[in-house]
């Protein structure tokens, strides 16, 4: 068995080996991919996709009649391939010690892989003939879009090279847009969703110069004949999961240095060639060395189901290349429980049925339940669209589905036929794509936030926006993503829905409860019926629950601060004095932070924000004072200090230490700085001279940072008679 990462690679590898043997495909060498198989009784080598071999391994852990498994292109680190390697090693350790496992890679660190396979695993290095490849960097012009940039680079390559061009683009959408800019040229697409005939067309040499626009499928495992130049956009699609916002899917990322080198090597397979890299040369050194393993970044619901079917839901005991992140695995398990595929005892019968479909568990659930509601084929058509949203020519599911039914593309039609055979249901009764979408992603049911707005709130709590105006109050969102730095998501594919459909598709998200919360600056008490985070119906509550009310008021105080209470100048100064004593003397003087004050509040009489303003902050502080130490507050942290002139001046406790603002003539007579807090803390005197008085000698005054106020030097002024002046408050 030879496991390839993609269907196209599996077919191409089988065809190449059969060609070398001088046999048709299906003889000694055959292949099997989803929806297509060519083998016979004479087949000794079967090339399959990693996903298909996973299914076989789950059904037959001993892999009866299989002598050797060869895992090709391990460096790509696809999720299915990493999981397959872990399960094969487990099967070999417990069931098939004679099973031979080979792993091949063009770029990966061989010693790390050999260590994973076993300490005595030999490393065999095969060097093929490689022709020199010249590298040219073609950075984009300012403001130039990707398709413009790539098309310009293609024209440059055509003018400088002979032979066919292989152009690497991140996805099918980019292939379409670049094709439109290369009209009049011999352009051929190459990606995994094309029909076998169309793929074969791109892999055959032609009489005229060809431009093959390909996704990552052409990076490895196959050779596009006649290629003498490669144009590399430097981008790829990688799976990313945003568990907090409930968004996941493929995002466009920069390729690694290893992938860029492998793409460049396509130009030197048959003769010397050139690679045109669509980025500045200085960025080459900033590329990551190897691709990020999908297991670190992808949504792991499907992997969690496979592990549960294997009997180790948490993946413990398996030899992993990279351990699945615990948080992502837990999120996947939570999704499986919501789908009924997993319970406290492990995988359920429904879970095994979903796994057999060869789909993401969400789509498997949508197919099973959608077939019962609408019939097998209507459900299969929508699921086939969701499984490969690149075939959608519109962001509206209904429009995209009508176009698919009209155009009948081979890949979509073949998948619809396969899925229809896997499920049973009543004869097609009605067409309701939104229901199937909602069954797959109930937490993505979305309601418009404001009349006429393009912004919607999904049941999962994430806000999303549509590209253009939409007259539907509800949406069933199939695909949404989020641009870096933005809190809300962008709807890429959705179906029009309504509240009745939402409640029918997601009954588990329905809830009804009394809510007392702090919102928009005050208490909101209401009885609410919700679909997840979406409010369906609400009505005010006249007498809210006291405990809920206290929690909501406390939340409001934490959010907006204790400034909501009634603060007088005396209360503010008392807090400063208590804070000073807590900082310098510690126990028993209490902390007077916002949290501490809130903990000591009596909120039994408060029902709204205005009631908080009637609570005396000074009274709360008084209740916090320790007894009998409270009697010493004025002694240890006096509100005012008497100066030699006889005036009593207020001490300022807002600075790092206590400060006494005093006119200089009132301080004359002090021989030392006054101290408070049981004599532990000196009071800083901020002195100002008498009006129109001449400056004394520098022996008496010290300038403090060039400010207008001066610091007194009492020892130098002891003989000067103090005179009262206007007190500084």
Automatic annotation (TrEMBL):
Keywords from the UniProt entry: ATP-binding, Helicase, Hydrolase, Nucleotide-binding
UniProt-recorded Gene Ontology molecular function terms: helicase activity; hydrolase activity
InterPro entries the record matches: Helicase-assoc_dom (IPR007502), Helicase_ATP-bd (IPR014001), Helicase_C-like (IPR001650), HrpB (IPR010225), P-loop_NTPase (IPR027417), RNA_helicase_ATP-dep_HrpB_C (IPR013689)
Pfam assignment, any one: HrpB_C
Coiled-coil segments on the chain, per record: none
Residue span, Helicase C-terminal domain: 145-311
Domain Helicase ATP-binding, residue spans: 1-126
Hydrolase as UniProt keyword: yes
Protein name: ATP-dependent helicase HrpB
Species assigned in the record: Kutzneria buriramensis
């Amino acid at each position: 068995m030879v496991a390839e990462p993609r269907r196209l690679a599996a077919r191409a590898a089988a065809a190449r080996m059969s060609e070398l043997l001088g046999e048709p495909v299906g003889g000694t060498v055959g292949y099997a991919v989803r929806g297509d198989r060519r083998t016979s009784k004479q087949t000794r080598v079967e090339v399959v996709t990693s996903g298909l071999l996973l299914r076989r391994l789950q059904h037959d852990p001993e892999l009866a009649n299989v002598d050797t498994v060869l895992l090709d292109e391990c460096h790509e680190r696809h999720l299915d391939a990493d999981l397959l390697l872990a399960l094969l090693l487990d099967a070999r350790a417990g069931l098939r010690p004679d099973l031979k496992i080979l792993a091949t890679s063009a770029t990966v660190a061989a010693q790390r892989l050999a260590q994973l396979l076993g300490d005595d695993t030999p490393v065999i290095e095969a060097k093929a003939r490689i022709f020199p490849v010249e590298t040219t960097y073609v950075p984009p012009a300012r403001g130039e879009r990707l398709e413009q940039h790539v098309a310009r680079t293609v024209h440059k390559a055509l003018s400088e090279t002979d032979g066919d061009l292989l152009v690497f683009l991140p996805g099918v959408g980019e292939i379409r847009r670049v094709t439109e800019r290369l009209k009049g040229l011999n352009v051929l697409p190459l990606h995994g969703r094309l029909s076998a005939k169309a793929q074969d067309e791109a892999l055959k040499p032609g009489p005229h110069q060809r431009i093959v626009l390909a996704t990552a499928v052409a990076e490895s495992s196959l050779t596009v004949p006649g290629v003498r130049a490669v144009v590399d956009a430097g981008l790829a699609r990688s799976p990313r999961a945003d568990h907090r916002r409930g968004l996941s899917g493929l995002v466009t990322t920069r390729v690694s240095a290893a992938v860029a080198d492998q793409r460049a090597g396509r130009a030197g397979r048959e003769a010397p060639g050139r690679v045109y890299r669509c980025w500045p040369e200085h960025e080459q050194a900033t590329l990551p060395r190897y691709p990020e393993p999908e297991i670190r970044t992808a949504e792991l619901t499907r992997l969690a189901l496979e592990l549960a079917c294997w009997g180790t839901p948490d993946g413990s005991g398996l030899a992993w290349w990279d351990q699945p992140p615990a948080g992502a695995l837990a999120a996947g398990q939570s999704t499986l429980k919501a789908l009924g595929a997993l319970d406290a005892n492990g995988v359920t019968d429904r879970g095994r049925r979903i796994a057999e479909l060869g789909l993401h568990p969400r789509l498997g659930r949508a197919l099973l339940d959608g077939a019962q509601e609408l019939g097998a084929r209507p459900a299969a058509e929508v699921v086939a669209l969701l499984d490969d949203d690149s075939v959608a020519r519109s962001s509206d599911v209904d429009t995209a589905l009508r176009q698919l039914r009209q155009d009948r593309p081979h890949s979509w039609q073949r998948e619809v036929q396969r899925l229809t055979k896997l499920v049973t249901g009543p004869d097609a009764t009605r067409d309701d794509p939104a229901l199937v979408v909602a069954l797959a992603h109930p937490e993505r049911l979305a309601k418009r936030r404001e009349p006429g707005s393009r912004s919607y709130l999904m049941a999962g709590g994430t806000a999303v926006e549509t590209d253009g105006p939409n007259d539907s109050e509800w949406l069933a969102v199939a695909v949404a993503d989020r641009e870096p730095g933005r809190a809300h998501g962008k709807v890429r594919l959705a179906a029009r829905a309504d509240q009745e459909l939402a409640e029918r598709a997601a009954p588990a998200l329905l809830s009804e409860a009394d809510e007392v919360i702090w919102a928009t600056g005050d208490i909101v008490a209401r009885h609410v019926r919700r679909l997840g985070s979406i409010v369906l119906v609400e009505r005010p509550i006249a007498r809210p629950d006291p405990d809920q009310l206290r929690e909501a008021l406390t939340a409001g105080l934490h959010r907006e601060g204790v400034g909501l209470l009634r603060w007088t100048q005396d209360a503010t100064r008392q807090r400063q004095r208590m804070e000073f004593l807590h900082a310098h003397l510690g126990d028993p003087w209490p902390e007077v932070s916002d949290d501490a004050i809130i903990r000591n509040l009596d909120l039994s009489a408060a029902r709204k924000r205005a009631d908080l303003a009637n609570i005396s902050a000074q009274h709360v502080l008084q209740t916090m004072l320790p007894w009998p130490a409270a009697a010493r507050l004025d002694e240890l942290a006096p509100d005012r200090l008497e100066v030699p002139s006889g005036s009593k001046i207020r001490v300022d406790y807002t600075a790092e230490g206590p400060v006494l603002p005093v006119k200089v003539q009132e301080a004359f007579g002090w021989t030392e700085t006054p101290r408070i807090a049981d004599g532990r803390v000196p009071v800083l005197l901020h002195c100002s001279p008498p009006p129109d008085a001449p400056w004394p000698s520098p022996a008496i005054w010290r300038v403090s940072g060039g400010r207008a106020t001066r610091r007194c030097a009492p020892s130098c002024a002891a003989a000067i008679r103090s005179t009262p002046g206007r007190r500084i408050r």
